Amino acid sequence: MTLNVYLSGEIHTDWREQIIDGAAGLDVTFSAPVTDHEASDDCGVAIMGAEADKFWHDSKGAKLNAIRTRAAIEKSDIVVVRFGDKYKQWNAAFDAGFAAALGKSLVVMHGPDIQHPLKEIDAAALAVTSTPAEIVAILKYVLNGTLPAA
């Protein structure tokens, strides 16, 4: 069985690479949003033309990014959503809700300091984790039925 895993959420740490490296050898295909912040913010105007108003600049980019995000989440078996400590990731919260609405297996990762504001998202998740290593252990268990060595 091949798992398609979408990695959503904060883009300021290497958590995605830790999961991908840890899952080496597993039958997993990963996808993610564009993690180049500038490219993600400016894709709409770079492709479809400049906007004088920042609202429309952002709107073009958000809609263009949504094409990629929707397609990847719809094709995924598991959606992992990472909430970081530094910024509020409203887009990650939206991805989590979209995944839940589609009935996708949702795994959430965040620290204990933001547990309270994420309680509703945590309630929709099938697993709530705090480290990339836990995500890798979940993938190994789901694919192979193996538990981490004690």
Concise structural overview:
With 150 residues, the protein is an alpha/beta fold.
Structural class: alpha/beta
**Computed Rg:** 16 Å
How many β-strand stretches? Answer: 5
Distance between the termini: 26 Å
The CATH architecture category of the domain at 3-33 and 76-144 equals 3-Layer(aba) Sandwich
Summarize the biggest pleated sheet.
5 strands, parallel
Strand numbers in spatial order across the main sheet: 2-1-3-4-5
Low-pLDDT parts are none
Beta fraction of the residues? 15-25%
CATH topology of the domain at 3-33 and 76-144: Rossmann fold
Shape: globular
* Elements, N to C (H/E): EHEHHEHEHEH
Helix content, binned percent: 40-55%
The average pLDDT score comes to: 96
CATH top level label of the domain at 3-33 and 76-144: Alpha Beta
Number of H- or I-type helical stretches: 6
Please give a structural write-up.
The chain has a domain at 3-33 and 76-144: Rossmann fold (3-Layer(aba) Sandwich). It is α/β, with parallel strands linked by helices. It has helices spanning 15-22, 37-48, 54-75, 90-101, 119-124, 132-144, and strands at 3-9, 28-31, 78-82, 105-109, 127-129. Strands 2-1-3-4-5 form a 5-stranded parallel beta sheet, with helices on both faces. The longest helix is centred in the middle third of the chain and has 22 residues, at 54-75. Helix 1 runs parallel beside helix 6 and helix 2 packs across helix 3 (54-75). The radius of gyration is 16 Å and the shape is globular. It is built from 6 helices and 5 strands. Helix content is 49%, strand content 16%.
